[in-house]
Amino acid sequence: GEDRTRDPQYAQQVQALEAKLQILDRQRREVLAQMQQLLGRSETLRDFLQQELEAWQERQQRACLGAPVDTRLRPLETWFTELGQGLFQLLKLLQALGDLPQKVTYERDPLKAETPLLERQLKELLTFLLKSAFVVEQQPTMPNACRRPLVLRTASKFSARARLLVRLHDRNHRMEAKIHIDRFRKFNILTSSSKTLLTGDSPQDGLVCDFQYLTLKEQKDSRSGKGSKGIGEGPLAVTEELHLITFTLAYAYGGLELELETSTLPFIIISNNNQLSSAWASILWFNMLSSNPKASRTPPAAPSLAPYLDRHFFSSPPPAPWPRLAEVLSWQFESVAERGLSRDHLLMLAEKLFGRA
């Protein structure tokens, strides 16, 4: 309580303390500026990875039609994991910075004002990255599909697999993956529709939700004894009804808990082999011409996926331009005969379809 403002020694101590606080303030602001710069670079990397992921999804869609394209995920998995590791390290650093004001603080301390904002921005970036990183690695396919995925037969086994491209997880947290089919028509997925995601001893094994030996059984409508198509399904044939399977994964790591979700490409369910050719033609036509096939890959969490799938595509299917159809026909031949169609072959087919010019 003494007035020591005239004490020279006390004045020197105050000046020394003010100098230390100025240095501390400058260092804290420099650290926060560097963190902001790293977040900006991370957003640029995230946008780049998103472009690469969309290119991979387009290649996968073409591969389902027989195109000879590379659909390996290892490069993307490595890039996503590296960025995820860096972001989680930044999150730890930000949380440590957020604890510093409890030890030393002062008026207009930048850590108090800016750290929460940076942490929120970083968590949003991590959330976007993780949700994008959950993808369908293997689209629904039967074992003897004759290179025709996305056509499933009731009471026949099929498989599908999803992968989380960020190979980071808390081994003390039980990660459960679940699958469910849309409700356009009422089907039950037999066998197990949930799995506990397990990894091998090596992180290189990846984080995979592998569902094998699944079968579909149509529920019967108690009123008519036949399968119900649901409300507003319309007069579409069975071979033109599009369905989705959605994977959900309860994810936790580094204090972040999320529910991740991804969906397959649209597929068709048949009940006998006589419907296979018509169903496959529908799959070809939809994937060639659907105006927004990606909408079915990343729907928001909702009880029904109906708004995110073009269910009325076949009510009035668009025409296919010949160059696009010719390309897909060539892929089909190449997928079974290891060589595509030549220009003369395609010209002959065009004359068969359209007549001579």
- Which strand order do you get reading across the main beta sheet? 1-3-7-5
Tell me the major beta sheet: 4 strands, antiparallel
Number of helices: 6
The quaternary organization reads as single chain
What's the CATH superfamily, by name? STAT transcription factor, DNA-binding domain
Q: Give the CATH topology.
A: Immunoglobulin-like
Number of domains: 1
- The strand count comes to 10
pLDDT below 50 for ≥5 consecutive residues: which ranges?
Answer: 224-228, 292-308
User: Structural class per helix/strand content?
Assistant: alpha+beta
Indicate the CATH class.
Mainly Beta
> What would the principal axes of the Cα set say about the shape?
elongated
User: Hey, roughly how much beta strand do the residues contain?
Assistant: 15-25%
Q: What is the typical, i.e. mean, pLDDT?
A: 84
CATH architecture: Sandwich
Keywords: Coiled coil, Cytoplasm, DNA-binding, Nucleus, Phosphoprotein, SH2 domain, Transcription, Transcription regulation
GO molecular function, one term: DNA binding
Subcellular location: Cytoplasm; Nucleus
Organism: Atlantisia rogersi
Topology at a glance:
Layout lengths: L7 H57 L9 H26 L10 H24 E8 L9 E3 L4 E7 L11 E6 L5 E4 L3 E3 L10 E12 L26 E9 L2 E8 L4 E3 L5 H14 L32 H16 L5 H12 L3
Parallel strand pairs: 2-10
Antiparallel strand pairs: 1-3, 3-7, 4-6, 4-8, 5-7, 8-9
Helix pairs in contact: 1-2, 1-3, 2-3
